[in-house]
Amino acid sequence: MDKVVACQTCGLVQEVGEVPKGCVIKCARCHFQIFHRNVDSRMRTLAFSIAAAILYFPSNFYPIVTAEYEGQYNQTTIFQGIKALWEHGQYFISGLVFCTSMFTPALKIAGLIFITLTLDWTRWKKARTYVFKTIRIIDPWNMLEVFLLAIGVSLVEMGEVATVHPGRGVLSFASVVVLTLLATFSFDPRLLWDPPEEKRIYE
Amino acid sequence: MSEKIHGLPKAKIERNYLTWSLWMVPLAAAAVCVYFVLHDIVFGGPTITIYFQNADGLQAQNSMVKFRGINIGEIESLKLAKDGEFVAVRAKLGFPARNLARQGSIFWIVRPEVKLGSISGLRTIVSGNYITVQPGDGPRTNAFVGAEQPPLPPIPAIQLTLLTGNLDSLEPQSPIFYRGIQVGEVMGFHLSDDARDVVVEARIREDYAPLVRMNSQFWNAGGINFHAGLFSGIEISAESAETVVSGGMAFATPPDYGPPATNGAVFTLNEKEKDEWKTWNPAIQLHNVPEGKTIKTSLPQFNPR
Ligand SMILES: [Zn+2]
Hints:
Bound molecules: zinc ion
Largest interface: A-B, 49 and 40 residues
Oligomer: heterodimer
Strand content of chain A: 5-15%
Largest sheet of chain A: 3 strands, antiparallel
Distance between the termini of chain B: 99 Å
């Protein structure tokens, strides 16, 4: 199945021969990879999503920051922070932080894993589309996680008053943020409607 | 077919090594989790429970356990013990402090304290109360009964029992003087079984122990002594500024001194010093250490107050 394709990077029109499984096409001139769909989209999305799912647990279980001041210390996990905000009457902020840092990451990770695992099934095509639409809707809100991290950093700046060190939670949480971002970027929505024969080539 | 299109370069086909190496990402994530759990198991200090009658000023998830001024643990929870008599304070000690969870360790709460003669724990006004510990060396244990008062630091000393009719201003840790130098302190007191005497437990530092002889005389040196004389005017004397407010006692040893006092020797604590005792000035060899035995240096901090 020889084809003539143009390199996305340098525009060189070239001929592509048979591509065996586990191989990639490299441009004859600029050596960049030539792809029709996102490279290894399904694999990458699945790998990043699973990694994010694994790290989701320590990110919520371990404290984000530990602050020490003289004879006192304070360890806060994400959930404790949300609870504290709720108890202080900051219901909106509390709900927002819960949604953006606990609920939507979980939803997104679960959704991406669901889509990539069930991609071959002829059934549930509609469900996959709905899940993907939902992910697209909540995606911009996930960026608030970065704000949360910024708050954490500003806490570290409090170093002159109290000793603040980042907990294990913040490392895990930052990893979850980065991994879910990578997972979404890797996912090629065109896989959702590609016919099965083509899917196998590009996934 | 390819022959028909002339001059077209042929794209290279290469093996894709990224596919399998991609799975290193979730593997690394799992490794991080395993590391967290293993680290907690291997380097997790013991969780101890200390029973206090009053945990005033401690906060769960907030107060710390300190030792020699540094943080060694954190208080996880405060609960009323089942019988309602004690507060069970659960504290998680750090890995370096694991050896403090031994029988004989004494835990107490440091609070700001202003009492006659001393002000202590001033920092806790700002920082909040915390728990501190005096290490013991018994077998490992996880349950402790907290001390209500800071214990005296353990130093090599001999213990004496003094009987007196009236405690006056003596209190635990009141100093004991020999010629104005503090050589020991009161450890505690209680009424005798028949309630006729006050039994005072005291200790004399090992270095000064030879000064106490079986015929030494002890007297209560607390308060201020007024001497009003027709020609000498009014004479006011006190053993030290400290004894004026916190009480104290002193002793003297006669020139024809007897054998050294043994551990647990019993003396009478006189209410006043006799003039005769002031003239006693025996030569007593201190540091009477047998050969081959090294002199134990005392803790630099003799009186924690
Ligand atoms: Zn190119």
